[in-house]
Description:
By secondary structure, this protein is α/β, with parallel strands linked by helices. 38% of the residues lie in helices and 15% in strands. The protein has 13 helices and 16 strands. Pyridoxal-5'-phosphate (PLP) is lined by residues 27, 78-80, 105, 154, 158, 185, 187-188, 208, 217.
Amino acid sequence: MQDDKNAQGVFRVNAKPRGRQFFQNPGPTNIPDRVLRAMDRAVLDFLSEEFLAIHRACHAGVKRVLKTQQQLFMYAASGHGAWEAALSNVLSPGDRVLMLESGYFSDSWTQMANHLGLQVETVPAEWRHGVGLDAVIEKLTADAAHAIKAVLVVHNETATGLTLSVPEVRRAIDEARHPALLFVDTISSLGCMDFRMDAWGVDIAVGGSQKGLMLPTGMSFTGVSAKAVAASAEGKTRRHYWDWREMGGRDPQRFLGTTPVHLFFGLEEALKLLDEEGLDAVFARHHRLAAATRAAVVHWGGNARSNVKADAKGISKGVKAIELFCADDARLSNSVTAVMLPEGHDADAVRRTALNRFNLSLGGGLGTLGGRVFRIGHMGDLNEPMLLGALATVELTFKTCGVPHQAGGVEAAIQALAAN
Length: 420
Ligand code: PLP
């Protein structure tokens, strides 16, 4: 196109790139065409029988994905809304809660809890490894008076690409013989990795629409155990929009306002997609694509493994080559990979070049990881060709930006996919 060239006929870097954008953000994620088409329809009265049938089916479908037979409350809000619903329904100002630090999102949830008047005690973690569960047992055992009302954990820390084992957290609580409720943020794990609310003894599971459920942002929900429902009768935090007492007791559970019917049209179709593929196959696909992504990253860095640490202050010095941010192999996330760049190289410049020149959208480093890390989302509606295209483009971007790397990361990803 004429517009794309300067007077000398050279391609202009800032021209809008052509072709379909490759979208590798860790939320929102790609919305499948079938979901988009399902939402492209006329509105329905949210109290009509026609819509209520869809509403009920979606309610049951989300419970199937959460693997719970207990209660579900849905909100017209992003994940922050469900976070607030979880805290405000069962806890009272002054209550103590134990947050397992994982990174940007555990910090943000902590901030919210503080604003709601809760006393947050943190089990600190070095972000590349996550918390040690012995420290959780220690904290809970020390609380002989059982003043801690809830343990809060982010199942998959989207900012760092680290997954904590929820059954292990459950075991730590049980080992300490502590009655605290277990709150789990499954926002970037649900529909990507196995999650079993009831079998794992989770009291409140917080989920959102725009990640593994492949929907637009704007719907979130909490799975709630019978124990948490009972606790909510005592909760003294002021609440209105999130109040389960206002929302409950109906079939299906009501929204305290207009039900977002188009999100339900999309959700109905997204649940069909998950059912057709089968949840186990969905998880296996996420595992395969994550392993391929990691193979590429490790190859680019020539298998570099430093002892560099990271926490809320940022990444300490000494990163010499490209590396996986998550340094614990047993905790590598299957939905997002955070990539650390060698010191002196700007991860945001890499992202800008990937986007502006090649139409590849990547996630940025959040908070103190800004500029040092970029993130490759591999969750939701994604397959091998999409991922390989994205990884090839990341490698092209490294070349373009002069980021030192060992060429051949895509071949390493292909080998990993072929082996799986
Ligand atoms: N928790 C996690 C793990 C997340 O990844 C996010 C968003 O990316 C949130 C909470 C906040 O959700 P939202 O942005 O939908 O409010």
